[in-house]
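A further point concerns the way the authors explain their paired sequence and structure data. The central task, working out the structure tokens from the amino acid sequence alone, is never made concrete. I therefore recommend that a typical entry be quoted early in the introduction. An entry of this sort, consisting of the sequence and the corresponding backbone structure tokens, reads as follows:
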Amino acid sequence: MELTLLHLYPDTMSLYGEYANIAVLRRHLEAMGVTVNLVKVTAEDVPDFTGADLIYMGAGTEGAQKAVLLGLTHQAQAIREALDRGCLLLFTGNAMETLGRSVTDAQGQVWGGLGLADFTTVETDRRTPGDVIAEPVLWSAPAVGFMNKCSTTAGITTPLFTSLPMGFGNEADHGPEGYADGGILATHLTGPVLVKNPDFTDLIIRRLFFAKGWSLPEELPVLPHEREAYAVTLRELQARLK
């Protein structure tokens, strides 16, 4: 069994330790006997999406995000073709915003997005850093993470999270957050989100195995202390809601 994980711009889009999302996913897969080919794409590279089983991009500064958009929008059709053949895409932090039709920056300049989703993002003068509790659509346990955003995203009808008991959603406090449609999963949650949420990691693994037609083992691997760390974080955040 072999999988190719394509990590876009780990040098510039890796705030908050976002590279660890790929690291923890790789550890889980290798524990299941999967050979993982990790391909890192920098600004100097022309990405090749043809063999990718998962495409990942993490959070960056607002400036780094715009630099990525300048180069990546030319690859929108190639990404769309990869999704059509069953590739999974995970974007976290403000990488999520690049998936839509446009990002309007704080100066009013409109930057074209990848057009893989029909939403739009507008940067604001309100920055909302803080911890997050989120209610997922695709798995049962609440998600935890961190968010530091200065934007609102409108036009999402299929969010990844139905509501945020703690945190700012796509458009409002406690509202729906993220985006999920077909093979695309996206959220502003960082932290990194897969390290903090083993159930989210398990969802990714199940999606990857399903796309390959592989049989899943009865139990997915659990890394040391990851479930305990999740439980402690959730308990401490929930205590702050009382």
Observations:
- The chain is about 30% helix and 30% strand.
- The radius of gyration is 17 Å.
- Helices lie at 19-31, 62-72, 76-84, 193-196, 198-212, 226-241.
